[in-house]
Amino acid sequence: MGLRTTHAVALFGVDGVLVEIEADVRSGGLPGVQLLGLPDAALQESKNRVRAAITNSGESWPLSHVTLALSPAALPKTGTSFDTALAVAVLAATERIPYSPLEGTVFFGELALDGRVRMVAGLLPGLLAATESGMRRAVVPAAGLAEARSVPGIEVLGAESLSEVVSWARGEGDLHQCPTEEFREAAEDVIEEDLADVRGQPEARRALEIAAAGGHHLLMIGPPGTGKTMLARRLCGLLPELSAEEALETTAVHSVAGVLPEGGALVRNAPFVAPHHSVSVSGLIGGGTGLARPGAVSRAHRGVLFVDEACEFGAQRLESLRTALEEGEVRISRKDGTLRYPARFQLVLATNPCPCAPARELDCRCTPQARRRYLNKLSGPLLDRTDLRVRMRSVTTGDLVSGGEPESSARVRARVSRAREAAAHRWREYGWRTNSEVPGPKLRGKFALPGTTTALLDRGLDTGALTARGADRCLRVAWTLSDLDGAERPEAEHVAAALQFRERTVV
Asked: What are phi and psi of 22, to 5 degrees?
C-alpha cells in the first residue's frame, strides 16, 4: 500500500483543466475516506459510489484510511466524471492493479453502485483538454465512444464496467475500441424543410437569402400566419456545412449542455434553437447554481437563434442578448469562477405588430398607443443590432395558387455558398469568415468605399437617422449584396438597398 496517481479533467464551460488524482492508502489508523480539492456535493458523494463499485466488482476495499486529493487543490471541481479515476487510483494504491498502464491515461465516467461506467456530459471538451495536456490515452464510458472518436491525437478506449478496466490494467482483457466506420452525422436522418414550401413574401425571402449569405441578424414583423416561422426554420437549410473546427466547437457546447443526440454524433449542420418566450434569463444566456450551464444562445453557436413572439419575451430577456450579439461569447461569473461559452449565432426575431394580432391588420382593435407600447419592447439598442428588417404582409389567394414554383433551398443555397466563398476569400488574411464579422474600422479604413457610393449613409449619419453602429451594419449588408451579385465591391445601389432593409419602421 502506498501513493498512486491517476488523471481526470475538470470542465469550466468548454475549457478543461487536467486534474491529478492522488490516492494515499496507509496501513494503520481508523478506516475512512477523505476527499480533498474543493469537491462539490456530487463529487463528495463519489466516496460512497466508488467504494460500492469496487466492492461489487469483486475487489476489496482497504481496511485503512484512504486520502484522495484532487490537484490543483484551489480549483473547484464539479460533477461525477471523476468516479472512474478515483476508483482506479485506490486500486493502484492498494496494489490490486499494476500502475504502468495508468501512466499517461486519463479516465472519464460516473460509476454505478454495481460497477457500471455511466456516460457523463462534456466528454468531447474533456478529451480535447486532455490531448492538449499531453495525455496519450483515455478510458471513457463505452456509450461515449462515438462522441470521443472525433478527437484526434489520443487513443480512446471504452469501458462498460469497472471490472473491464481492472482486467485491462492487469493485462487480462481488452477494452472496447472506437468504431472504424465512417462517423455518423448528427442530422443525417433529419428531413430538411425546403424554402419552396413558402409562397409569396418575396421581400422576406430575399432578406433570408441575404442573412444567410452574410451572417446577418433579421427581424420579421407581420400578422400571424404570414410565414415568419416557416422562413426562420428554413434559414439553416441555406447555411453551409460547418467546418471541422466549427463542428468540434459546436459539438463541445452541446456535449457540456447534455443535448447531443444518442450516439454522440458530431454536429455538422448549423443548429437551430427556438426557446419559448417563458424561458428565464439563465435558460437563455446560461446560468444555474454553482458553475453555470450553457444557455440557448450557446446551443445556437454557429447556427440560428429564433426568438418567436419576441415582444412577449420581456425587456430583461431581450436586452440580455445584446452583449452576446456583439462579442460572440457569453461570460458568466459565479462564486465558483467565471465561465466562457461561445455564442456566435444568427439572431432571427419575429413578432406580431400588435397585442391583438388579427389575421388582417385592418381588423386591429389596438390603439396607436397600444401598438407603440407593444413594439417598444424591442428597444432601440437591440433594433440597432438587427441588420435586416422586413415587414410581412398577409398572404393572398394569388400567392398560394398562381405563379411558378418558388425557388428551392438548394438553388438559393448555391448562391449563398458562392457569396460566402467570395467573402471568405476577401477576409481570409484577417481570419473572418463572413461580412457580419468584419469590424467597422476596417470597413471605413482599408476597404472604404468612395463618397459617391456612401452618400446616402453619410446623409443618414449627418441627420441622426443612423447611428455609427447602424452605418457599419449597412456597409456589411452592402458587401453581402455585392457578393450575391458577383461584384468586386459595393456600388451605390447596394448601399441604398441595404439602407432600405434597415429603414423599415416597426411601429
From this structure: -105, 135
* Cβ atoms of 73 and 37 closer than 8 Å: yes
Residue 481, C-alpha cell as written in the block: 449584396
C-alpha distances in Å from residue 121, one per residue of 111, 194, 255: 14, 33, 6
The SS3 of residue 120 is: coil
Integer Cα distance of 241 and 302 in angstroms:
10
Instruction: Kindly report, residue by residue over 304-328, the tens digit of the pLDDT.
Output: 999 999 999 988 999 999 989 988 9
Alpha-carbon dihedral sign for residues 478, 484, 487, 488: positive
What is d(CA 255, CA 50) in angstroms, rounded to the nearest whole number? Answer: 24
Strand ordering across the sheet containing 65-71: 32-36, 65-71, 15-26, 3-12, 105-107, 137-141, 155-159, 176-177
**pTM for the structure as a whole:** 0.87
**pLDDT, the chain, mean:** 89
Half-sphere exposure of 254 (CA within 13 A, CB side): 27
**What's the confidence (pLDDT) of residue 67?**
93
What is the torsion angle, in degrees rounded to the nearest 10, for the CA atoms of residue 368, residue 372, residue 373 and residue 376? 180
Q: Cβ(301)–Cβ(345) under 8 Å?
A: yes
| Phi and psi, residue 133, nearest 5° | -85, 0
Which candidate, 39, 27, 31, 32, places its Cα nearest to that of 3? 27
Give the residue among 216, 88, 232, 262 at the shortest CA–CA distance from 477: 216
What are 13's three cell numbers?
A: 464551460
Residues 196, 237: contact at Cβ < 8 Å? no
Q: Cα separation of 213 and 480, whole Å?
A: 7
Encode pLDDT of 96-144 as tens digits: 999 999 999 999 999 999 999 999 989 999 999 999 999 999 999 999 9
Radius of gyration of the chain (CA): 27
In this structure, are residues 93 and 25 in contact, taking their beta carbons and an 8 Å threshold?
yes
| Phi, psi for 59 (deg, rounded to 5) | -105, 165
The C-alpha cell at 79 is 460533477
The lowest-confidence range among 61-75, 203-217, 390-404, 472-486 is: 390-404
